Amino acid sequence: MIANPRAGRWLVTGAAGMLGQDVLAVLKDAGVEAEGLRRADLDITDPAAVRAAVEGVAVVVNCAAWTDVDGAETAEEAATAVNGTGVRVLAAACAEVGARLLHLSTDYVLPGNATQPYREDAETGPVNAYGRSKLVGEQAVAELLPQDGYIVRTAWLYGEHGPNFVATMLKLAAQRDTLDVVDDQHGQPTWSYALARHLVDLGLAALAGKAPGGVYHGTASGRTTWMGLAREAYRLSGLDPERIRPTTSDAFVRPAARPAFSVLAHEGWSAAGLEPLADWRVQLAEAITRPAFSELLRMPSAR
């Protein structure tokens, strides 16, 4: 495809991750010149390296992150070095060269005790170390890039290029007759490729002067629970949804507390002239046909 010169050159950090790979694929299809840097290629906590990497770049999509939620409980300083300090370094470099920064954040910066979807301007209040580390990053972007910083909160991501809940459920279908899945945590399962498409659209809108900086909620529309997601994945795959049985979070004690309510509102997209992401069922129905998921159903003992 012929490159789109008006889009400038883009940089994707964390390019080996599930979302990073999808962002690069979408950029390629859109004819946008882009470079992807993995963790081994770029330490985002190194100011000199980051400054060199962003030189001549129009848009940076930061997918680099410490993502081990439970591990952050005993290594909060290390998590914050990446999710907080590293983001500050990126934001400062982008401010210096005049690049837009699309920074991926998380629903975990919110307290998770609401009964209505969280607006983009909702008061933050992380319940675990991971959320605190990500909030430090958000604050850095807001401070250093008030006009050219885009904080995109996402949640419950699944995709083709890494471990995720949907893939795990399909794998386990070949191994177990029934599965107990949590039914008291509410959120918005989001296909990483669908989010990648929206990130590229947001970046292009930013370059065109149509998208204001600030917080955007990059999650699917609608809502469900982990059990609801598992059952829908089974239904779409021709498996019996009743094999998924409801249980509570108390049955799966984890080192880090999880928000009980991770449903986000999507008013911010209208300011950029963009529609919110599609309903989670629509996304899942498209994603489940991709080879990475459909091949899991060919396992000999799958029912």
UniProtKB/TrEMBL annotation:
It comes from the Bacteria. The keyword Oxidoreductase applies. This is dTDP-4-dehydrorhamnose reductase. The keyword Ion transport does not apply. It comes from Streptomyces virginiae. GO terms for molecular function: dTDP-4-dehydrorhamnose reductase activity. It is an enzyme of class 1 (oxidoreductase). Catalyzes the reduction of dTDP-6-deoxy-L-lyxo-4-hexulose to yield dTDP-L-rhamnose. Residues 10-290 form the RmlD-like substrate binding domain. Belongs to the dTDP-4-dehydrorhamnose reductase family. InterPro entries: dTDP_dehydrorham_reduct, NAD(P)-bd_dom_sf, RmlD-like-bd. Pathway: Carbohydrate biosynthesis; dTDP-L-rhamnose biosynthesis. Keywords: NADP, Oxidoreductase. Its EC number is 1.1.1.133.
